[in-house]
Amino acid sequence: KLIADGLFGRIASRLYSSTDCTIGIARLEDKVALITGGASGLGKATAAEFVKHGAKVVIADTNAKLGPQISQNLGPAAHFVQCDVTSEDHIAEAVNITVARYGKLDIMCNNAGISGSPFPPSVADLDLDEFDRVMRINVRGMIAGIKHAARVMIPACSGSILCTASVSGVMGGLGPHPYTISKFAIPGMVKSVASELCGHGVRINCISPSPIPTPLVVEQFAQFFPNATRDEIIEIVNKLGVLKGAKCEDIDVARASLYLASDEAKFVTGHNLVVDGGFTSFKNLEF
Ligand code: NAD
């Protein structure tokens, strides 16, 4: 009976029970993750999914009001660090805090991003200061996260790096030029870095979601529909899902991240996982 109880305890510790009462295997047991932009939207959903699957999670975000609340709601497995990804020092510090607190860094989610200012009528009127601002967060912030994660992961000969790209980095015309250009840069960054890091046992992949009504997307769509209420914009975004019976939700991105972060994806690197319900395959896309 003792052996059976011990065995049951060990099996039970590897299972999780989610709010919808399904039982599953904890796929990130003993893993430590750092998630930039984890105080809202996709990063927040990913942090919750990772904790549900047994990971310790550090949320690194500029939002010093929401960040601690999100971390507290996730319980002792989560911790908040105030971090602006435009500062290399902040990122280095977030990585150091993660390693000091939990002993290692297995998963780096470079997710923080902004949509930038409204569309100018033409590229001929592009504000290059605005272009620099978007690039600083969406591209430089990501490569800085990759750099400092690599400093820990290369010596450990292990790790999984994720970057949040977008369908705006798969087809043009979906967002302002700076945003689109920044998102096209990410799969290239991933390919380039993967070619080096595969020699060190470290994987790097990106995820390209279609629009999901997070604060970022609601703000972006408000540029197309200036007179629409927030609820009306959410409805418009939800109708963009082209896969019959499905709409893109933050949990879809969180689960894609879960797969790429976990050992189940141990042979997957340099990949851009498009999570769009057919959005980029659909020929007659119209808002
Ligand atoms: P969001 O606005 O809900 O969350 C973004 C988070 O990033 C916020 O908590 C914000 O405080 C944080 N952040 C912003 N600038 C930062 C900085 N300089 N340093 C640290 N944190 C910063 O947006 P979201 O929709 O969850 O977007 C997350 C990522 O997903 C972005 O890279 C975005 O481009 C990408 N994305 C979103 C969608 C979508 O439909 N929501 C689709 C494709 C890609």
TrEMBL record:
Oxidoreductase recorded as keyword: yes
Annotated Pfam families: adh_short_C2 (PF13561)
Gene3D superfamilies: NAD(P)-binding Rossmann-like Domain
Record's keyword annotation contains Metal-binding: no
One Gene Ontology molecular-function label: oxidoreductase activity, acting on the CH-OH group of donors, NAD or NADP as acceptor
Swiss-Prot/TrEMBL keywords: Oxidoreductase
Stored PANTHER family: 3-OXOACYL-(ACYL-CARRIER-PROTEIN) REDUCTASE (AFU_ORTHOLOGUE AFUA_6G11210), ALCOHOL DEHYDROGENASE-LIKE PROTEIN
Homology family: Belongs to the short-chain dehydrogenases/reductases (SDR) family.
Protein's name according to its UniProt entry: Zerumbone synthase-like
